[in-house]
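Milestone M4 deliverable, item 7.
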Amino acid sequence: MAESLTHKRVLGIAFPIVLSNATVPILGAVDTGVIGQLGAAAPIGAVGVGAIILSSLYWIFGFLRMGTTGLTAQAIGAKDAGETAALLSRSLMIGIGAGVVIILLQIPLFWAAFKLAPASNEVETLAKTYLQIRVFSAPAAIALYGITGWLIAHERTRAVLVLQLWMNGLNIFLDLLFVLTFHWGVEGVAIATFLAEWTGLGLGLWLARFGFAGGLWRNWVQIFDRIRLRRMAVVNGDIMIRSVLLQAAFTSFLFLGARFGDTTLAANQVLLQFMYITAYAMDGFAYAAEALIGQALGANNRRVFRRSVYLTSFWGVASVIVMTVAFAVWGGWIIDVMATAPDVRMEARQYLPWMVLAPITGVACWMLDGIFIGATRSGDMRNMMLVSVIVYVASLWAFLGPFGNHGLWASMILFFIARGVTLGWKYPGLEASIERA
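Output delivered:
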C-alpha cells in the first residue's frame, strides 16, 4: 500500500480539489465585484454580512463534511462496504434535516445575528433581504457537505470538481445576469446562489450514484446501528463544537470590523477574499490528507500514515509559498478589481501586508486539520480549538483598542499560529496510536 502512495497520487487527489475550492473564493470575489460596481460601500458590506451569517450557520454543520470524510475513509481502509454506504445515507438525512431546522428558526437566528452585528441601518436592511432569499436553499447546501465528504473519502475528487464548477459557474453567470443586466442588486446575488445550491444537490446525488448501487444504502439495520451511530455522534459532536468556535472567531472578526465604519467593513470583506483563496487552495492538500490518512488508520498501517503526512504536507507548504509571493506582487491589483469605490481601495491597501503573512502563518493549522480529521481525532481538535480561541480573544483584548483594525488583523494571524502549534503538540500521540508498521 505504501508503494502506491506517490506524489502523483496525492496530486491526483488534491489538484481537482484545489481547482474546485479555488472557484469558491472566485465566486465570493465576483459577488463582491458585481455589487462593487454599484459604487457604494453599503451593498458590499450587506452581501458580506449576509453571506458570513449563513456561512457561519451552515459551517456549524461542517462536521458533516469532515466527519463523513474521516469515517468513510476509515471504512474504505477496513474494506467495510456496508458501513461505507450507510455513511452516505446518514449524511444525507442529517444534512436535509438540519437545513429544514434553519428555515424554521430563521427569524430568531437572524435576529440574534444582527444583535451581534453593529452595522449601519442601510447595511442591515440590505443584508436581511439577502438572507430571506438564500435561507431556503439551506437543506441543499448542508446536504452537499455530506456528499462532498463521501466523494473525497473515495478519492473521487474529479467529481467534486465537476460539482463545484457547475454550482459556481452557474452562480457567477446568474450574478452577472441578475445584477448587471436585470439590476436586481443584492436580491439578484441571493437568487443566483439559491438556484445554484439546489441544482448542485441534484448533480451531487447523481455523481454519488455508485453509492446507491446494490441496496446497501438502505440497509436500515446498519444505518441505525447504535454503536456506529454513537461513534458518529461523538465525532460529529466534537467537530461541531470545533466548528462553532472557529466560526465564532471569523464572525466576530467581521462584526468587530464593522465598528470602524462601512468603508473599513467593505475593505475587510475585500481582503477576506485573499484569505479564502488561500484556505480553499490549501484545503486541496488537507482533503488529500483526510482521505489517505483515514484509509491508513482503517488499515492500521503506520508506514502509510507517515508517508501520507509527508507527501500532503510537502505540497501544502509549496502552495502557500506561491500564494505569499502572488499576494505580495499582485495584491493591489486584485483589490482594484474587486472594488471601484476609491475609499474602499485605499482602506484595503493599508491592511494588505496582513494578507501576505496569512498563508505562511496558516499552513500548519490547515494541514494538521486534515490529518486529525482523517484520523477522526475529534476530541483533540475540539480542545485545541478552544485553546486557540482563548489566544484570539486575549489578542483582541490587548490589540484592538490601541491598534484598531490593524489589531484585529494581528489577532487573526495569532489565531492561525495558535491552531498550528496546539495541534502540532498533539501529533506525536496520534502517530503513536497506530499499532502496526
